[in-house]
What we know:
Blueprint: H1 2-23, H2 27-40, E1 58-60, E2 66-68, E3 80-86, E4 89-95, H3 109-115, H4 126-134, E5 154-156, E6 159-160, H5 165-176, E7 182-186, E8 203-208, H6 213-220, E9 226-230, E10 237-241, E11 246-249, H7 267-305
Parallel strand pairs: 3-7, 9-11
Antiparallel strand pairs: 1-2, 3-4, 5-6, 7-8, 8-10, 9-10
Amino acid sequence: MLRKTFMVAVAVLAVVLPSTAFAHAPRASIAAASHRATRTARPIAQPQRSRAARPATRHRTNSNVTHARRPSRPCLSPSVEVVRVEGAKRESRHIALTRCNGTPNAAALTELSILARPHGVDRPTTAALRDHERRIPVAGRRMRRNVRPADPTFVAEDVKRLDSGLLVRLQNVAARFPNRAIEIVSGYRASERASSRHHMARAVDIRVRGISRERLRDFARSLDETGVGYYPNSVFVHVDVRERRAYWVDRSGPGEEADYGQWPRPDTELTAIRDNLLQRAEDAIQRFAESGVTDATDRHATSAAD
Length: 306
């Protein structure tokens, strides 16, 4: 019994004495003990995320720098100088007419349509273009009651949107005659008959600076689904978009009625024209002579009466 009591007392002292000693120990000793405990403690392992759980919105480059992905720009053909000709006025723009794969560059169609607007129509302002675009009826777009809907076949008032096939044809011309401006003499014409391709905005009258109309005509005739009109007594070549190739010659001059036929004129036709001119000259001389005799007779009769 005594031995068991002694053992309990020793156990109590073993628990009480170390805590009492630590409480009365110097502050420096306590700080040192805390430092040793902190230094020897092992860091807690953090859970690792799998690659599949990581966000895929960024990519790592060779320089280990992360960048957000940017949309790639479309590949465009080299820009071409297109000039609007209206009398002595000139209006020039550099336009990338097609993409690198040869398809039309839709972003260039508005500018080309503006250059091919009717004569006498002022260039639309940026505000006018935006206003027209906002008024085009689009599915899901709510229009105000007071707003008049815009015609989607126009890019602005009096400026009709050209057929996109003209972008491809003009690009072919530019590639055949590089580093030369393409001049638009005429494009969309509202006053033409409804069946005219100028009225449908599917035709342009053009010339290439420094290139003869005959060379331009011959190359344009090699293009598929293209209509070509040659005007030997004018200053341009007509190019339009159609289902199959077509070619014609209009020998009339500016402001004259159309005169379709061969060029140069065949000898038989030249002979007939010469004979017709000679006959008209003889008739004019005969009328003048008869008029002179009549006037002289009248003057003589008047003098005798006096």
